[in-house]
Design brief:
80% helix, 384 residues, 15 helices, Growth Hormone, Chain: A, mainly alpha
């Protein structure tokens, strides 16, 4: 298989994966809100899904690296995840949805970390081109959030269940096209464990990344509900989410040029401070213009942060533990970080409101940026 074909297949997977995310993130909690679930119930559902995202990528990652079965696990996860998602069509009961969410999370968990690992391996010496693949996910997100926002205005939020099922089915078919990684690219020996990441440099990064994603909990979990409470409709909500993804595309497309000039750590530190500013402004934003302005900061609070994180953890992870490295990163951020952000936001949203929560999120992002800066500044020169 040629490198061009490989890039097309991986780009298509990013397109479908983030297309699903473009339906789920802005609208699943809104769907639950329309089912009259409380903020606490919505937070618990979101936290449970992300708990699975924190735990199971580590399990799947260890199995994949030790037995060289990353591709079979990737395919099976998508197939079983699609089947489990279909069960949401059969109930609106909170307890049953909680059970479905727990099972779905087990299979959904490893998909993105495995996809990132495939990309790092198959790009080989051109890993800085990762953003060129990932940008297709951003484009998909933009198209989906606008389209689905309009469909919700016409029909209802329940339409998202069928849409996600349809896109998941497409990704199931495409999963069989992912190429096998050759022995030259993926080493069969598994000579390291999670203990490799138990050093000051890695732990500081993972903790700060955890704080960054905790700070995103209110945004991912309650931004759409917050906007609806401010009086905005589905189309504006979709457009606001789309604008954020448009902003991040500039980072994805220009990632190779950015990282040829700036280190991964410097980009990460800048991203933290940008996120702190974004959430602080959003805490007081009610006007259309100011809300949309804050969405432009997504280029840094998500775009540059995400690309730099993927490349940085790949740099820190020794050969033979690349899948585990991405799984650890995914578990700390989109697992534990988002889980904590969802849970705390769900607990406090009805008590203190979205504005106060976004202010707290700004403080969390600022703390992460300061800690990462201090670790870099105090690290002995020879270990840099």
């Amino acid at each position: 298989m040629s490198s061009t074909q490989i890039r097309i297949i991986l780009s298509a997977h990013y397109f479908l994966y983030f297309g699903i995310l473009g339906i789920y993130l802005p609208y699943f909690n809104l769907y639950c809100y329309h089912l009259d679930f409380s903020g606490f119930q919505i937070g618990v559902l979101s936290a449970l899904r992300t708990f699975s995202t924190a735990l199971f990528p580590l399990v799947w990652g260890v199995l994949a690296d030790r037995y060289n079965i990353r591709r079979p696990i990737f395919i099976s996860s998508i197939l079983f995840g699609t089947a489990v998602w279909s069960l949401y069509l059969l109930t609106t009961d909170f307890t049953l949805m909680l059970i479905i969410t727990a099972i779905y999370g087990i299979f959904y968990a490893p998909i993105i970390s495995f996809l990132e690992s495939f990309s790092m391996d198959l790009l080989d010496t051109r890993k800085s081109d990762y953003g060129h693949l990932r940008v297709w996910g951003s484009l998909s997100f933009i198209l989906v959030v606008i389209l689905v926002g309009r469909l919700i205005d016409i029909y209802s939020a329940a339409i998202i269940l069928v849409l996600i099922l349809g896109v998941s089915a497409l990704q199931s078919v495409l999963s069989f096209a992912v190429p096998r990684v050759s022995p030259q690219t993926h080493k069969k020996s598994f000579s390291a464990s999670i203990g490799i990441f138990l050093n000051r440099r890695a732990l500081t990064f993972l903790f700060c990344a955890f704080l960054m994603l905790v700070s995103h909990g209110t945004y991912y979990g309650f931004f759409s509900i917050h906007l609806e409470q401010l009086g905005y409709g589905g189309f504006f909500i979709g457009f606001a989410w789309a604008l954020a993804s448009i902003a991040e595309i500039s980072i994805m497309v220009g990632s190779a040029r950015i990282f040829s000039r700036f280190s991964f750590e410097n980009v990460l530190i800048f991203s933290f401070f940008a996120a702190a500013l974004r959430w602080t402004i959003l805490a007081g934003a009610e006007s259309t213009g100011l809300i949309l302005f804050t969405q432009l900061f997504h280029a840094f609070s998500y775009g540059s942060f995400h690309v730099a994180s993927i490349l940085y953890i790949d740099k820190l992870a020794p050969s033979g533990t690349k899948t585990l490295g991405q799984a650890v990163n995914n578990a700390a951020t989109y697992g534990l970080g988002i889980m904590m952000g969802f849970f705390v936001s769900g607990l406090l949203f009805e008590k203190i409101g979205g504005s106060n929560l976004f202010f707290i999120c700004g403080a969390l992002a600022l703390t992460g940026g300061i800690l990462l800066f201090l670790e870099k500044a105090t690290r002995p020169v020879e270990t840099a």
